[in-house]
Amino acid sequence: MTAVQPQPQPVQDALEVGTTATTVVRGRSRIPWRFLAGRAAFYLFTLWAAITINFFLPRMMKGDAVDQYLSRNRNVSPEAADALRTLLGLDTDRSLLQQYLDYVGLLLRGDLGVSLLHGLRPVTEVIGQALPWTVGLVGFATVISFTIGTIGGAVVGWRRGSRLDGLIPVTTFLGTIPYFWLGLLAIAVFSVNLGWFPIGKAYGVGMRPEWSAEFVGQVVHHGTLPAATIVIASLGGWMLGMRNMMLTVLDEDYVMVAQAKGMPNRRVLWRYAARNAVLPQIQSFALSIGFIVGGTIVMEMVFSYPGVGKLLLDATNAKDYALMQGVFLVITLSVLVANVLADVAYAFLDPRTRQTEA
Q1: Cβ proximity of 330 and 308 under 8 Å
Q2: Going from the N-terminus, what domains does the chain have, and what CATH number goes with each?
Q3: Crossing angle for the helix pair 279-287 and 140-158, nearest 10 degrees?
Q4: If you average pLDDT over residues 119-125, what whole number do you get?
Q5: Both ends of the chain: CA-CA distance in Å?
Q6: Which pLDDT does position 89 carry in this prediction?
Q7: pLDDT bucket at 21, cuts 50 / 70 / 90
Q8: Which of 67, 90, 210, 310 has the fewest CB atoms within 10 Å, i.e. is most exposed?
Q9: Which residues pair with 122 in a beta bridge?
Q10: Neighbour-count burial for 310-332, b at 16+ CB within 10 Å, e otherwise
């Protein structure tokens, strides 16, 4: 009887049979719900903590907005003063906990209160008028500084040991100069001596805000000098950080393998090295969003520029709780939103984060 010979089984590659790597590549990518839920819970808790601190911190200061107002206006009756405290949520007959609950309830309805410093105008209206100036000037300058510094740092790191390394100590030195001194020096040289730019303000005297070529030209002309000083003051940090990260990434194996395969240097630089080196820069940029919205108080004071930073300083001096809380809340929300966008950018640039679960 003839023995039945077993049919030879086709040889399969171990990678085709199914390994962890193959499963990840070929399988449908799962949405990391646990990770997203954890991040959402973290941001919600951070928002609640910021709102709570935002409420109690100004009330630890001595005096309030009504006391400051009464010191400037002696003819206000006690009844009117009590009515002002009730309107501003500073009624002494209600406990701090009751005031806090009232404050949260108003926030949920989008009511930030009224500003005594600005004639009982709604805080949202006051901030809404100052916010575009700060975002337009400081935001534009920060984005320009981040872009130039990141690209320049990547190129300097890629060509390490060349003459381009001389840019690092120069930009770092400019970044160590106190900003108010740099601003005053720029005004003395380019405004007073050369007369190229105005000394301050956001637009010329007699101009009214409107969408016209003349007004836009005035805004650009007045904003060029303060924007340039912001770029110069912050460029060194972005360039130095990106250059140091490039030096670390260039020693990684995948960069050397890409070069060994004969890939063009431009592709290795931007698709492999710079793409991974820029990740810490993105997180730093997200944190600088608070700087954008909060503005630089020193810059707005030196250049007499209207913005949120100057608004916050005036509100602090006047102990205008509602205005202070409104500005702090806008800064907090901007930082949280920026961090959410940074997480999205991380997931886009680094595929490993898309497979991470808490």
Answers
A1: yes
A2: 128-355 (1.10.3720.10)
A3: 160
A4: 84
A5: 63
A6: 65
A7: very low
A8: 210
A9: 114
A10: bbbbebeebbbbbbbbbbbbbbb
**Which sign does the torsion angle of CA 295, 291, 131, 208 carry?**
positive
Handedness of CA 328, 331, 333, 335 (dihedral sign): negative
Q: DSSP letters along 169-188, please?
A: HHHHHHHHS-HHHHHHHHII
Determine how β-strand 121-122 pairs with β-strand 114-115.
antiparallel
Task: Tell me which residue of 46, 54, 298 sits closest to 181, measured CA to CA.
Answer: 298
Residue 94: which residues within 8 A CB-CB, separation 6 or more? 102
Handedness of CA 71, 73, 79, 85 (dihedral sign): negative
Q: Look up residue 145 and give its amino acid.
A: S
Token pair of 239 as six digits = 């360039």
Q: 336-357 burial, b if ≥16 CB within 10 A, otherwise e? A: bebbeebbebbbeeeeebeeee
Token pair in block for residue 195: 């007369």
Residue 303 has a CB neighbour count (10 Å cut-off) of 27
User: Residue 15's pLDDT band (boundaries 50, 70, 90)?
Assistant: very low
pLDDT at 16: 40
What is 213-265 written as a DSSP string?
HHHHHHHHHHHHHHHHHHHHHHHHHHHHHHHHHHHHHTTSHHHHHHHHTT--H
Q: For the packed helices 321-349 and 279-287, what is the interaxial angle rounded to 10 degrees?
A: 170
Q: 222: which 2 tokens?
A: 């007045």
Phi, psi of 4 (to 5 degrees): -80, 120
Q: Which DSSP helix (H) or strand (E) runs through 115?
A: strand 114-115
Cα–Cα distance measured from residue 32 to residue 355, given in angstroms and rounded to the nearest whole number: 7
